[in-house]
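Handout, section B. The chain below has 214 residues.
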Amino acid sequence: MPPAPRPHRSYDQYCAAARALDTVGDRWTLLIVRELLVGPRRYTDLHADLPGVSTDVLASRLKDMERDGLTTRRRLPPPSAAYVYELTERGRELLPVLQALATWGAPALQERAPTDAVRAHWFALPLLRALAGLGVEGVAQVRLDEGEFHVRVGGDGGSYGDGPAPQEPDARIVMDAETSVAVSGGALTVAEGVKAGRIEVSGEGVLAKALRAC
């Protein structure tokens, strides 16, 4: 079988890290993956949640990602006529990569500039990793001042979505962005946040009970 075609831009290095960056090293690509980890998104949704990206760049990146096998595009069934983009299995494999980047980058969140955009679900990546450490499965609905998101903790690495959970969550969590940043960077564990009253937990599911028992 012939080798897969190389991306248009390549480091031309026989190195796994270089090959990975050939595919996801362009600006905006990994942030598009972050948005698509939420689930299928329309082009307009992606553009709204990627402040600063131009329409031309977003369209180009999506085209490249589809070519490289990271995303697919499909049309929603009637009565909707919209197209949505979603990650392939290959694209979803970038979840732990983004989680590691979020943990590494958390110390840089100490100061929030007046021009910094923020979306609640951007805090989901590190929280998902922190909740996975509890060793139980379940869905948690999380509320910050900036909005709501939900995470599903499971054996497959979990997932997250914007807004309220689609079903009754196993746990409801309330905290502020400062606490979420502290958890992200390892300065505060979930258990410490619950004990200190910085993280409020409600619900009777296994996940809620595990959080209160920390």
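Note. The chain has a mean pLDDT of 91. Compare this with the example in section A.
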